Structure formats: C-alpha cells, structure tokens
C-alpha cells in the first residue's frame, strides 16, 4: 500500500469510528466528546519543561471575559493564553482551538456520560473534557477553581498536556 492509500484508509477508519460513536450518543455535542482515534498517537510524549506548573492553591477569578476578553470561545482561548504565558505553560491558539473543537465542539458545558471515566463516576467536562482529579492536580492559579469555567478548564488541560506531552500543540487525539 502506498503512503497516500494508508493515510486515506486511516482517515476512513477514524471517520467510521467517529460515525459509530456519534450514532451511539445523543446530540451533536455529545458525539464530539472524547472520540478516540483508532491509530496510535502520532507524537511521542516530549519531556516536560521545568516551567510547567504542576498544581496550585485555590485562586478566585471572575466570570470568563471579566478581564476584558470576549465571553466566547475566542475570548476564552485568548484569556487562557495570556495566563499560560505568564505561568510559562506552552501552547498556541491553533493547538487549543483544534483540541477544543475535537473534544467539545466549543461547548463549555459539554459532559461525557458514556466513557470509562463516567462509568467510574468522574465524567470528563468542559471545553477540553477534563476529569475532576486531573483538574485538581493541574489547576492554574489565577483561574476559578471550577472545572466547567472555560478559562480554568483550558488552562488546567494545557498545563496537564504540557506536563505529559510537552504542549497542548502535541495532542492530536483524546488525551
């Protein structure tokens, strides 16, 4: 098989997996939640940077958009990037947006009620489908201690991805 044929076959297999998952779930937003790829993760986990924040104490923050950013997906990503930059957490707008669209279709209230985490009583929630223990461990100071707060969810997920994969930009499937 040529590389082009293998790539096309892999894309078709992923599409079939996502189609079956979509049929098995309710609603368009639920279909986009935590769909696992049939192929192995393309990027090898990169070593974590020393500047990655592991955990933080509770910190209060106002509602998303309260710092002069728009209260929408674009504003949440931009506000998160500003916090990430200040804390030394790597990531780009494109990397965050790509992962958010795959995980929740941009719905900050998305919740996965069907995977193994949900069956164990800890469903993944929010824009980047984070479970509560991961959020608690990777919460970033300066954000609300609320798993479904869009900015807190994005920054905690990016912090986790930076620690585990080097950057959210290296994540190309469910993580």
From TrEMBL:
Lineage: superkingdom: Bacteria
Cross-referenced InterPro entries: Lysozyme-like_dom_sf (IPR023346), Transglycosylase_SLT_dom_1 (IPR008258)
Name of one Pfam family that matches: SLT
Gene3D superfamilies listed in its UniProt record: 1.10.530.10
Domain Transglycosylase SLT as annotated: residue spans: 100-172
Keywords, comma-separated and alphabetical: Signal
Span of the signal peptide: 1-42
Protein name as annotated: Transglycosylase SLT domain-containing protein
UniProt source species: Streptomyces atratus
Upper classification of the organism: Bacteria, Bacillati, Actinomycetota, Actinomycetes, Kitasatosporales
């Amino acid at each position: 098989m040529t590389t082009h044929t293998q790539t096309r076959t892999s894309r078709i297999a992923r599409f079939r997996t996502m189609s079956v998952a979509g049929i098995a779930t309710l609603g368009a937003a639920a279909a986009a939640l935590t769909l696992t790829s049939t192929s192995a993760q393309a990027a090898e986990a990169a070593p974590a940077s020393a500047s990655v924040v592991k955990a933080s104490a509770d910190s209060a923050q106002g509602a998303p958009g309260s710092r002069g950013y728009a209260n929408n997906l674009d504003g949440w990503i931009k506000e998160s990037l500003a916090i990430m930059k200040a804390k030394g957490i790597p990531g780009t707008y494109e990397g965050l947006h790509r992962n958010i669209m795959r995980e929740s279709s941009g719905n900050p209230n998305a919740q996965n009620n069907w995977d193994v985490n949900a069956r164990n009583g800890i469903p993944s929630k929010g824009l980047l489908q984070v479970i509560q223990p991961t959020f608690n461990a990777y919460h970033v100071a300066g954000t609300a201690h609320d798993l479904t707060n869009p900015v807190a969810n994005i920054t905690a997920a990016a912090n986790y991805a930076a620690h585990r994969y080097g950057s959210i930009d290296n994540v190309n499937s469910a993580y």
